[in-house]
Structures are given as C-alpha cells and as structure tokens.
Amino acid sequence: MDYINAFWVGGLICVVAQILIDKTNMTPARILVLYVVIGTILGGIGIYDKLVDFAGAGASVPLVGFGNVLAKGVMKAVDANGLIGVITGGTAAAAGGIAAAIFFGFLVALIFDPKAKK
Predict the structure, then answer these.
(1) Orientation angle between helical segments 28-44 and 2-23, nearest 10 degrees
(2) Does an H or E element contain 99, and which?
C-alpha cells in the first residue's frame, strides 16, 4: 500500500503542476517556485510531515518536499543557533540534495554532448 500511496500522491502533485501549465499563463519556473513556497509553508506549520508519513517518497521527493526540508532545517537551526539559523538552516538541511544535483549535473554534462535547439 505504501507504493500505491506514494504513486498517487506524487502523481497528483505532478497533475496539479501540469494543469497550472496548461490552463494558466504561469511559467514552469513560477510553478516551481510556488511549489517550494507551498512546501515551506506547509512544513513550517507542521502539516507536510503528516503527508510525508502517509505518502513517503511520493511527497518528499517533489519540489514541495524540498520546501519542507528547508522549513524543517530553518526551525531546527533557529532552535540550536538563534537568529543566525534563519540564514544557515535551510542551506545546511538541503546541502546533500544540492550537492548531489550539482555533481550529477556535472557528470551528465561530461558524458553527453549538448547541442543547441534549432
């Protein structure tokens, strides 16, 4: 059942983004930012953790989950370090994911030969 919940929750998140792309004038970049902000807000008020408990990777992997990680990191850093945690907490919490994205992006750039669209 865990796999099914992860599939339909992750799919629903993607379907909402696709509807926003198709039915509004929002650019994909604005939708991505919207998703991160929504994840941060829901994580900050404690709602998103319940969704992650229910859907697992279906809720934690998309961009909304990234916003949740940022919110949790900031809250933890503020508790430990005070006001400076507002600046450092999100970056420290998401550092592994950010480093992996940079590393694998670089690796793919080395393997493949990019070409400009014509």
Answers:
(1) 130
(2) helix 85-111
- DSSP 8-state symbol, 84: G
Which structural domain range is residue 36 located in? 2-111
Reported pTM: 0.78
As a dihedral over the C-alpha atoms of residue 6, residue 9, residue 13, residue 15, rounded to 10 degrees, the angle is 110
Q: Give pLDDT tens digits for 7-30.
A: 999 999 999 999 999 999 999 999
Q: What is the pLDDT of residues 30-81, one digit of tens each?
A: 999 999 999 999 998 989 889 989 998 888 888 888 899 999 999 999 999 9
The verdict on residue 94 lying in a domain is yes
116 domain-assigned:
no
